[in-house]
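input
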Amino acid sequence: GELNLMVGVAFSVDEGATNVTAGTTSSGESFGADANLTQGQNTIIARGRKTEANTRPMWGLMEKFQHTQGSKTLSIPKWGESVAYDVTAGIEFTKAEQLNPSFTNVSLKRIYTRVIVLDDLQDQYSEDTLRVAGELAGEAMGTKEDKDAIALFSPLATALGADNKSLSLANANGCLGRANAGDVDADGRRFGDKAGLAFVHHDNAIGYLRNSLTITGATYPIPSLKNWDVIKDYWAGFQISGVNFWGDNNILKVAAVDSGYGAIFHRKGLAIYRGMSVKPEKERNTALFADVVTWSERYQAFTLDTTRAASARYEMVNMTHDA
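output
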């Protein structure tokens, strides 16, 4: 699980566990062959332009909880609905409601990214290699966090769409109908207010929907979100029935088919429990003649309320560009 000069991948790690990979020194640090150095000088800057915040659009659309000092887990109560009854004058009413909440309990996990920057690279490269390493690590961490949030989609209890189905306007309206009106054959509860709803899928699925819209070139109001500057690049540029659509290319196709799982959800349906912010720690490894920087973060992505979210499985084939 080590990063070598320019490759950015973030990993989950159990508290207290020791990760040792093949090709390490006796002290546990990995290093690359000298042949990688020249390639690293040519590509490290080109690979290092994104930062952590710009690679996790899902985190900008979900409810957030912050870990507090001294607590081990987060426990969130959910209260059932109360019912009102008719009363007849002169007759004592006897019905009562019992408050009996259910709880969602969440614990933090840790992810890390380690980058080893050889002295040779720092000496031969004109840029600040540690800054570049930080940008690469930030991209890796952001991608890992976003994928953890996407992993919540497919297990959701309410499943919309299907394999071999495209995200047409009719299908999009069907998803919006379920979110706004619920299932009329069941309890008919909606996911929540439209302002808190979001539809997220791969850009290819969103592109098919954009092609099927009858109104083109329309101006849609910019979403009113506090973190708009962070996630604005992932807005699809339109909304339907007041619900904004977002593209997230960290969504992958299901194995052996061309469809994948997006989701339509309310902000109070999916959530992030955050511990400390990203923490960099630098150490010197004289055996490698290198600086070793490790970034770590503690968080957990989880389903807060299964009645406020649904998976949306649609085709993600590449868009036609020469029709």
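quick obs: The mean pLDDT is 78.
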